[in-house]
Design a protein that fits this description.
alpha+beta, four-stranded mixed β-sheet, 3 helices
Length: about 100
Amino acid sequence: MLYEQFPKFKAIKTICPNADTSIFIFYPPKWKKIIEYIDKFKFLDYSDAEVLDKVYGFNNYCLSKENIMNENKRGVGFMCMQYFNENNQSTLFEHFFL
């Protein structure tokens, strides 16, 4: 189902390039599995600006689109982010709504 959403976000970014596009998954797979799904998707028809901005896995992780450079690749990729408050409780759900 994740792959079905990418073209929808591409259309949104075409209409409104500054739109913040995110997916929120209530019962997410592990972040390594979601990265595998994203890596398998063929982004050849997408510019870096048309790729969705964030994938939230309920109270587990946020994969955030970032500019990535390493010896093998250069361009847009995803970094795993986590958000916690001063009591070490996840604030991922709150971050999604902000």
